[in-house]
Specification:
The complex is a heterodimer. Chain A is built from 19 helices and 11 strands. Chain A is of the alpha/beta class. In chain A, α5 crosses α6, α15 runs antiparallel to α18 and α17 runs antiparallel to α18. The two termini of chain A are 36 Å apart. By secondary structure, chain B is of the alpha+beta class. Chain B is 18% helix and 18% strand. In chain B, α2 crosses α3. The chains are: A alpha/beta, B alpha+beta. Chains A and B meet through α15, α16 and α17 of A and α2 of B.
Chain lengths: 446, 338
């Protein structure tokens, strides 16, 4: 089992309280940063660590921080994106509910590095109980002098607020999140200007995922270079993977980036193989918006190399034969899964969650869903399969925010890799629409 | 000042100008269509994606192309930028896709719609769309809503350009107007069907690119192309209203009053509700003369002026247009130098 940097003490009784957390080495990074480092040194450590955004896009965090505009006399903000709502991703909820102080510690260190005097945690509305946990932990941190005026006598002051959303997936998009935080309708903004220049209240803002901010804590404690030793190539450190679906041991695993996908699925250390002794059919490796891959392509790349759990290895082959690490929402599907039904299910989600601001996404997500509904229920035609690809292509790249792509990619990938299943629905509607029916034939690899 | 190349035509514009406005300086057929952008309204644009263009060189300093198509109405120019609109096949294909998307939930009830003839969506679909649809499902519909006694909202026709929302927000008081719901269930709404009750509310009718917001005093009175627009003014008592309008005549009757619009359908001066809804007698007005219709739409029939196009730039004009161009060659090519 690899090293655990974030979740080492997650099972300790009472770790959600300040005292126990502190006893296990908590808030060391705050002491170290505020007492011995300048803000720029903290940013430099994060840069050295090679940490990449854990929310899905995988953008280097240190670079994002250094892009932050710093005009004189203007407040800056650090906002934590805790609006985790992608189907298949549930790592942040776990981290926040069990280790609330880890996030708060990361927020303090990160805010210090960016020079923010007020920071926000924007949490998904459905996670009301986590909000309460965080609020209690923040109150404890205030009482212990780690938040508020003049933290640890360093002269640095910080206020931290938790703000719940109202349950819209789109508010996980950073500019929609900022709109929502400002009290407006959660519509993504046109970019540029980017949040680093004009973010919250038109001030320079950095928006980071929960896990990204939490990862700042071990980086400061152990040094960026030490952190960068973990992992493979440009995928450094550890990553939380929320594994679900037809696995023997679904759950949240902190892995060192670089674990082979095969080992992650089949070894007893991790997911322990596919349940009920069945065969693996397909995997969605990074949350519902990334392309689905059949067993053959998720275990090995098109060139025949072992696929690893890294940003690079999973995206090897582009979208033709690859996928993305995304947010780490790992969904495994066994041979009894109907890919058409699954794609329809994902599509229904994106149709429901599109904000409706720009036309390709507003109209296109609904169209995809309706065509998939038709195919799944045995009323489709061969022409519908091509229609899906065409509509997905019309959405992709033409929208204001990435939700359009998130809706288009899974559909395009499902047709690309499982076209035979769609065709089976058209040619054998009676068989395909029977309860629990799934195509059991062999896949035809393109 | 920044010098950009738009469809092979060079134009120099002040820094901070958007690509769309730079193209409008060139004028004519190279101008990208805009369904949601509206110059007088702050924050508008970027939503309909009709104006997407290809930036094949970002600037003189950094000549890399932009990876995705960009919305020309909100992207500002950089010196040395090279933009492709009508000469880029990808742009034309995407635009065709946008028309299709905008039309899948549109009722296409043009024959009974008051906006027909001066509808941006109609023009856009005519110029860039295809004549068939691949959409077989049921279309989204809404009940008609009266927003007060003068304006009717026909949400089914709406393309959610947000123009009326910005209008209600920026030029009228006591906003009760916004967007409710999400995705393709999103609708323009006045919460709990409040009426928009202020002196400038009628302007939401003028900014609407489609027939979603219509003038109830004009509903079903006449097809717009049978009416004659005449510019007129009066001394309006309202401090914010200049009283400069367009009257739409049928015979001797003033059927409706609108603000004056430019060739891109944008209102230059907002007018108050008194001018718009209450002054429908010729005696109320000082007439200035016939209003010039710049837009090449059905409304300009009988005194149709061909759009200023550059045949070298637009390669795949429909055959009918080419024939028409040959018969009546446009006075100026490319729109350069007046």
């Amino acid at each position: 089992m690899g090293r655990k940097l974030l979740t080492e003490h997650i099972d300790v009784e009472g770790i959600n309280t300040f005292e126990v957390y502190r006893k296990h080495g908590g808030y060391r990074s705050v002491e170290k940063a505020l007492k011995t480092m300048t803000p720029d040194e903290v940013v430099e450590e994060v840069k050295k660590s090679g940490l990449r955004g854990r929310g899905g896009a995988g953008f280097p965090t240190g670079m994002k921080w250094s892009f932050l505009a710093k005009p004189e006399g203007v407040p800056r903000y650090l906002v934590c994106n805790a609006d985790e709502s992608e189907p298949g991703t549930f790592k942040d909820r776990h981290l926040m509910s069990r280790l609330p102080h880890l996030l708060i510690e990361g927020m303090i260190t990160g805010s210090y590095a960016l020079g923010a005097r007020t920071s926000y945690i924007y949490i998904r509305g459905e996670l009301l109980y986590v909000l309460r946990i965080l609020e209690k932990a923040i109150a404890e941190a205030y009482a212990a002098g780690f938040l508020g005026e003049n933290i640890l006598g360093s002269g640095y002051s910080l206020d931290l607020h938790v703000h719940p959303g109202a349950g819209a997936y789109i508010c996980g998009e950073e500019t929609a999140l900022l709109e929502s935080l400002e009290g407006k309708r959660g519509n993504p903004r046109n970019k540029p200007p980017f949040p680093a220049v004009q973010g919250l209240y038109a001030r320079p803002t950095v928006v980071n995922n929960v896990e990204t901010i939490a990862a700042v804590v071990p980086i400061i404690n152990e040094g960026g270079d030490e952190y960068a030793k973990l992992g493979v190539g440009k995928s450094t450190g550890t990553k939380l993977i929320s594994a679900c679906g037809h696995l023997n041991k679904p759950g949240i695993y902190e892995i060192e980036l670089g674990v082979p996908v095969e080992e992650f699925i089949y070894s007893d250390e991790y997911c322990g193989g596919i349940w009920k002794g069945r065969d693996l059919k397909a995997v969605v490796a990074g949350g519902s918006s990334v392309p689905i891959l059949p067993k053959e392509l998720i275990l090995k790349t098109a060139a025949g190399e072992n696929r690893l759990m890294t940003y690079e290895s999973l995206s090897d082959g582009g979208f033709v034969t690859g996928t993305m690490l995304g947010s780490g929402g790992f969904i495994a599907m066994d041979e009894t899964t109907c890919i058409v039904k699954n794609t329809w299910n994902f599509s229904r989600f994106y149709h429901h969650e599109s904000c409706g601001q720009c036309s390709p996404c507003r109209e296109g997500t609904g169209w995809l869903e309706k065509v998939l509904h038709r195919l799944e229920h045995g009323h489709g035609s061969m022409h519908d399969i091509d229609l899906l690809v065409s509509v997905a292509k019309q959405i992709e790249g033409n929208t204001i925010c990435p939700l359009g792509e998130a809706a288009a990619w899974p559909v395009a990938a499902a047709v690309r890799h499982f076209r035979h299943e769609f065709e089976w629905h058209v040619t054998n509607p009676k068989e395909a629409t029977a309860p629990g029916a799934a195509y059991r034939g062999t896949a035809v690899l393109a | 000042m920044a010098k950009i190349t738009f469809d092979g035509i060079e134009v120099e514009v002040p820094d901070g100008t958007t690509i769309l406005n730079a193209a409008r300086q060139i004028g004519g057929g190279v101008v990208p269509p805009a369904m949601c952008y509206y110059t007088p309204l702050k924050g508008s644009g970027g939503k309909c994606r009709a104006c997407l263009v290809k930036v094949s060189a970002g600037s003189a300093k950094d000549p890399r192309p932009m990876p995705k198509l960009v919305a020309s109405c909100i992207t500002t120019v950089q010196d040395g930028m090279v933009v492709e609109n009508t000469i880029n096949q990808q742009v034309l294909d995407v635009r065709k896709g946008i028309v299709e998307m905008l039309l899948i939930n549109h009722p296409l009830d043009c024959p009974v719609c008051d906006q027909a003839g001066e509808c941006s969506l109609q023009d856009f679909a005519f110029e860039h769309g295809v004549s068939t649809t691949r959409y077989e499902e049921e279309r989204r519909t809404f009940e008609k809503i009266d927003i007060g006694p003068l304006i009717q909202l026909h949400m089914t026709r709406c393309i959610l350009c947000y123009r009326c929302v910005y209008t209600a927000n920026q030029i009228t008081d006591n906003r009760v107007h916004g967007v409710l719901g999400r995705g393709d269930a999103a609708e323009i709404g006045t919460y709990i069907e409040n009426i928009i009750d202020n002196d400038f509310s009628g302007n939401v009718i003028d900014v609407c690119p489609v027939g979603a917001l219509t003038d109830k005093t004009f509903r079903f009175k006449q097809r717009v192309w049978f009416t004659k627009p005449v510019n007129a003014h009066r001394n309006c008592s309202h401090e914010k209203c200049e009283g400069r309008v367009t009257l739409w005549y049928k015979g001797k009757d003033v059927l409706r009053v609108t603000a004056r619009k430019d060739e891109y359908g944008e209102v230059k001066e907002w007018i108050c509700n008194e001018c718009r809804f209450d002054k429908k007698e010729t005696a109320d007005w000082v007439l200035e003369g016939p209003a010039h219709i710049n837009r090449a739409s059905v409304i300009a029939q009988n005194h149709y002026e061909l759009p200023v196009v550059n045949p070298q730039v637009i390669q795949d004009l429909p055959e009918s247009t080419t024939r028409e161009l040959e018969r009546n060659p446009p006075l100026k090519l490319g729109g350069l130098n007046g």
